[in-house]
Predict the structure.
Amino acid sequence: MTLDDFVRFGRAQKYFRTLGHRPPPAAVKAIEIALRTELPDSYRELVLEHGFVRWFGVSIFGIDPDEEESTVVRTLEERANLSDSQSFACMPERGNFIAEIFGGGFCFLYGNNSDRAGQVAAHAPDDEYREVQYWRSIEDYFEFVAVRSKNWVSVGAQGSDV
């Protein structure tokens, strides 16, 4: 799924939000410097066009002055937290956190300067933060998120048998 298709899908979802304006181009370079990585093109475009993308149940981190959806803040926090953990086997270095999943797990986007350039890996807390799933590209991850989002059912939407 392309970034445009993903954002178009997101706009139709409840509580859709982005940064609301285009961040300056230097903001991407600042992410790359802070995290010692080279961002894949589609993610770079997401950050430059939208800052971050969020709707009910879904977040793709990027640039957010409130820091809730900030990939730099979240990546640096998780690197610090997980490096202190005895259970976490190996914290990837060349990339950034793009989403929180599995009640405390995360999705990690490998930078273009890594041996897994552009892949997205899911790490689950129940498995000591080991990688439990991956996607070959962020576009594949967008598709996964959109399909998963289509399966949400509002409480009470189907009657009282919930």
Summary: Residues 3-148 form a domain with the SMI1/KNR4-like fold (CATH 3.40.1580.10). The radius of gyration is 16 Å.
